[in-house]
Write a structure and sequence with these properties.
The protein is 25% helix and 16% strand. It is of the alpha/beta class and 504 residues long. Helix 1 crosses helix 9 and helix 6 packs parallel to helix 9. The chain is globular and about 65 Å long.
Length: 504
Amino acid sequence: MINYSVFAQNSESKPNILFIAVDDMNDWIGPLGGMELSKTPNLDKLASQSMLFKNAHCASPACSPSRLSIMTGVQPSKSGNMQNEWYDGAQWRNEPIFKDIETIEQFFKNRGYKTLAGGKIYHTLAPPWEVLNQTEPESWGFYFPSAHAPLPYQIRAEDSIINPTHFKGKRLEYFTWGPLNIPEEKMADYQVVDWARYQLQQKHDKPFYLACGLFRPHMPWEVPQKYFDLYPLEDIPDLEIQENDLKDAFDHGRRNWHKWVLMNKQWKKVIQGYLASIAFADAQLGRLLKTLEESEYHKNTIVVLWSDHGMHMGEKENWEKFTLWEEATRVPLIIKAPGVTIAGSSSYQPVSLLDVYPSLAQLAGFEVPEHCDGVSVLPLIKNSKEKRNQSALTSFNFNRSTANYRKNPIIGHALRGERFRYIYYEKLGLEELYDHNNDPSEFNNLAYRKDSKHVIKEFRNELVGRVDYLTLEDFKKFPKEYIINNEVIEKTNFKTMNELIFME
């Protein structure tokens, strides 16, 4: 192992770790440039002091499998955990592959660290939505407010604001947006950050691993009014959307959400709510980082910030995550290690959130556990021009029935390289290929063009090498209900969104 850590020379001077998880944050932040209108001064500042990974992706585009893969270091395609699970407690330990795994917090606890957590780290929901937490309470020296109820109660917006009587049709109860008429210190995330700030102001007799999980910008997009005021509706831009975008791609089965937004003319209001929620999360991050800067720990604390997955805001006629396209898999990933990272450095090499565990282990001067499927980003931190020899792998089970998805899986895998995104849907046999140099919105599926054969071959070989139950024979199946037209695959009987709305 190459040891880049400046802390490894003295076992008594191990670095502290501030582990910041942000929920549902896509690339609409200043450092990633996905939305010019977005105001994220604290993320901007952190990126300017750190190493920014511009091509980072989750291992599975849903809260539960993404977070479990980060905390255990195990690839979802290997564990079979590729969908949201709604159980409470660490029932994932019942899976043989996880039985004896040392999670990242246990790794540091077992090596002399004080482990502290507050908010959403593993898959968690907050009251009044639902109360669950899939962490192991015994892994933490303290959990705020409790390992069993890991987020404070979150006040909702007034019903007259989020559910006006003129809305047509049904939607998910928490697919809502609107300003809250409360001071921001009443927000659950504000209170979690207050607790984390308190910890940074205390004397600690040994190095700490402090995990702080922000729930926003997860829906419902309800935050104090001042964050909505940052984004007047007249300033909200139109997103670049293609009417027949799913004709040459996988139908994710979630088009009714998009239809509802269009029928009720809510698109810009939803975007406003999401941007306001990002701004609120950024403000809480700023409070936390300011306290770190003013503390005695600022020179020996590694900061890592990540989001569990991205977020569709109407692209591909989808809202939320749960796809294998760029909007769902691309995430913020920022690492600041005093004396190691170069301020303002960045890399566009494909990296995975699975790389966080081995990277932190190596940064702190420890050997990387053998069970980790990720690859340390230390070589990229050492040399931002370093090249990687593999893509970022994301896997997902599209069967959303918790009871049946393991018995009847509808699994897809995406490989995101430096230029291309490749997707393969197992049972369907459908392939997708997008060239991000020329098509960053992923409008045009190039997988069935003759001049894509060599790229497709390379991705197939890589996928077979990384998902051990796949073989090259699997790719010979042609997807039903699709045809090839002038080297472009097309779904038969495809209906545009306008047609679906007209049929309503």
